[in-house]
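Supplementary Methods S3. Complex input for the Palmitoyl-CoA-bound model.
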Amino acid sequence: MKAIQLYYPPEWAHCYGCGYLNAHGLHIQTYWDPEKGESETRFTPRPYHTAIPGFVYGGLLASLVDCHSTATAAAAKAQAEGLSLEATPLRFVTASLKVDFLKPTPLGPDLRLVGRPQEVKGRKVVVETELYAAGTLTVRGEAVLVQIAEGFGGGAG
Ligand SMILES: CCCCCCCCCCCCCCCC(=O)SCCNC(=O)CCNC(=O)[C@H](O)C(C)(C)COP(=O)(O)OP(=O)(O)OC[C@H]1O[C@@H](n2cnc3c(N)ncnc32)[C@H](O)[C@@H]1OP(=O)(O)O
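Predicted complex, serialized as structure tokens:
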């Protein structure tokens, strides 16, 4: 299966969180399950992603939720409209991002994010994301994503 981010055209693939053309980026990769209508990202933080020793920096967790949500929005919109991302790349930007840090996230285990679209309406998609560390829910996010309008800000992403 191909990660949603790999369908982004090169001019939209420089994002620090998920752009495949950003050599210094996180390279977040999101996979869509059309049967369940939900998405998954896995990410293993590095030792330098520390908040306090043993725990993951919250800004990194917010970045994971952010880019996981933009990709989930693209997949959800494509499925809702019966489009193929291969033929019709869709790219969303984050209009609003809310992150609840429910528990400290331990540094070490692989993190798993699950995204569920709550609303797909026009250019807007609302996505709820849960982030698990070793099976424990530690972060919940809600994001409002807006599809980039035709010809908008080309090359900036
Ligand atoms: C990087 C940016 C440059 C772009 C270059 C483009 C190319 C590169 C792409 C690569 C992108 C990488 C993506 C990585 C993920 C990020 O980190 S993106 C970076 C952070 N995000 C930004 O910088 C976005 C800045 N904000 C904006 O540009 C504009 O506010 C937006 C988000 C495009 C929306 O403006 P708009 O197109 O005028 O949309 P508008 O018609 O007002 O609203 C559409 C819908 O969204 C809702 N909405 C809009 N804002 C909000 C909000 N804050 N809260 C709740 N709902 C909202 C509206 O209510 C409306 O809903 P409905 O009425 O239809 O139900």
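The longest helix spans residues 58-81. The chain has one domain: 4-147.
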